[in-house]
Amino acid sequence: MLAGVPVTPDRDTARQWLVQELSKPEYATQPSLLERLWLWFVHLFDAIPGVSAPPWQVLLGVLVVAAVVVVVARTVAGPVRLARARAARPVSAADDARTAAQLRSAADAAADRRDWPLAVAERFRAVVRGLEERVVIDESPGRTAQEAATAAGTRLPVVFNTSGYESTATLEAYADMMDVALCDLRYASGTTAREASQAGDYVRVARAALRWFWERLGPLQEDENGIATRGTIVRVLILPGHADEAVASLRWLAENLGTGVHVSLMAQYTPAHNALALPPWDRPINEDEYNAAAAALEDLGFENG
């Protein structure tokens, strides 16, 4: 006959029964969210060699670094927010009735006093007022600089200003964004281009770019206010000791684009930096060099030069 289960176990038996009972899954307690976060944070450093500090010290260090980052961010972001606030101010006061000419005079006066911030602001106001006077943009007292630029940007043509040293692939990428091309012809000799600009292929590249402009944009077109709206303008730069290359560039233009292309004959070469010690680049052009290029412009029959 089997003995029944004792109702009153001894101390050791009772302890064994209690441990076995409490080890069952239904008695398991889940750690709180805070405990799980702490364990996750501590385990982050288990695989990092050389970290022997207690976890609470590591946490304290992280909090200190985070506080420093917040302080630096607020210090840097403060001036940025202030700059944005300043940029949102109106271009002109609502009661500012000065004309574009008067604003330009005010800008010049500020520049003479070396008050550059005011000079720049007055010059920008003159630009905006000039656009309003020509009815390019509508008058809108109190508008901001960004609003003025946005309004003008939808009405004014985009000028692609370039030295001419552009690949046709680059031009194709910007084809839909340009209305007027303002393109240089600086050299007619690869040797000169290599000496002056370290670009021995300049002549080939620039002439290909000009052909591209001419085929895509054509001759210069203007609106009733004399503002260029589409087309090509070529700047031929006269260089000291190389006026013959300016003449050669004019001849190439006449033969390849025609004498109807608008040409700006530039005589403003000014030596600087290394050119100051390298003849003939160390001097401006002389009167004979300019006259030779100007005579070629006339002799070749350019209509817009």
Short description:
With 305 residues, the protein is α/β, with parallel strands linked by helices. 50% of the residues lie in helices and 9% in strands.
Description:
- The chain has helices at 11-22, 33-43, 55-87, 100-112, 116-133, 145-153, 168-173, 190-197, 202-217, 243-256, 287-299, and strands spanning 159-162, 180-185, 221-222, 228-237, 262-266.
- The protein has 305 residues and is α/β, with parallel strands linked by helices.
- Strands 1, 2, 3, 4 and 5 form a five-stranded mixed beta sheet that branches.
- The longest helix is centred in the N-terminal third of the chain and has 33 residues, at 55-87.
- The N and C termini lie far apart (130 Å).
Jot down its keywords.
9% strand; 305 residues; single chain; alpha/beta; elongated; 50% helix; 5-stranded mixed sheet
